[in-house]
Amino acid sequence: MQTSNSSSLMVGFTPKTFILAGIPGMEAEHIWISIPFCLMYVIIFLGNGTILHVIHMNPTLHQPMYLFLAMLALAELGISASTLPTVLGIFLFDATEIDFNVCLLQMFSIHSFSIMESGILLAMSMDRFVAIYSPLRYTVILTLPRIFSMGATIGLKSVVLMAPLTVLLQCLPFCGHNILSHSYCLHPNLVHLPCADTSINNIYGLFIVISTFGLDFLLIVVSYMLILYTVLSIASREGRWKALNTCGSHVCAVLVYYVPMIGLSMVHRFGRHLPTLVQPTMANIYLFFPPVVNPIVYSIKTKEIRRGIVRVFSKKRVRG
Fold first, then answer.
1. Which residues, 6 or more positions from 177, have their beta carbon under 8 angstroms from its beta carbon?
2. What pLDDT, in 10s, does the model give residues 238-260?
3. For the chain, how are helix, strand and coil distributed in percent, rounded to 5?
4. Is residue 9 part of a domain?
5. Rounded to whole angstroms, how far apart are CA atoms 94 and 185?
6. Does 27 map to a domain?
7. Three-state SS letters, 126-168
8. Residue ranges making up the domain that contains 257
9. What is the domain-level CATH number for residue 31?
10. Cα diameter, the chain
11. Is residue 199 part of a domain?
12. pLDDT, tens digit, for every residue of 140-175?
């Protein structure tokens, strides 16, 4: 009997469900923990939704910089909408089970929108370079059809790259291993569960990381080196400061996106001996920090967005 059981485990199977984790050791405080998560979701959807509404309702903001900002807000809403059902399900209703296929769909959505966000940040850095290097030809180079083509290409690339990773996971046996360490499904977590060789998954996953996040970040750095070179050639100090000031919000967006992502990658690779709280905390910072902070940063530092928001709320007050 023991032999048949062990042989069946070696053959493996596809689990019907995965078990998600909240915050290890704090299960009794889930209701209290749900309060900051609910607050973050409110800020994310209200903040990014307001930016989208302001850009949509103001024809003067239908310019490359603000259209890329709208794409960034959409990507961040996509990531947050992907995590919301399981995060709030765990903390509010103690619903820790997730269907296998739903888990793969959530993983696909989170990573696809993350790749889109990285690509959009690269497009925004190129936008800032063109605006500073050739301001007179800015709208000629970055036409509306070209901007929408760039957005469509970024979205298509994300979906095409992530689809094989989902299929590869479906083909692996799990041998009863179905407990995850996050409140949502991420590939670095899922790929450790199968009881078969995951070399192809790891190699392809590494290829995606290098060809998207790694390459995007490198090109962003190159863009800002060119921006600095261009700014230093401007004669007046006021002109240099004005040019650099237009990049402030984007630099903040790049830092709040890539710093947590690099931290999470380091924890996944080398953090096996760290306390159990570290990994879920880093994952939550990576997924929640950018969509919470970016709308606030752009609302404060971008005069046109700030005016648009004031105009929207002043109209509502007048109607009320």
1. 193, 194, 195
2. 888 888 888 999 999 999 999 99
3. 80, 0, 20
4. no
5. 16
6. yes
7. HHHHHHHHCHHHHHHHCCHHHHHHHHHHHHHHHHHHHHHHHHH
8. 14-312
9. 1.20.1070.10
10. 84
11. yes
12. 999 999 999 999 999 999 999 999 999 999 988 888
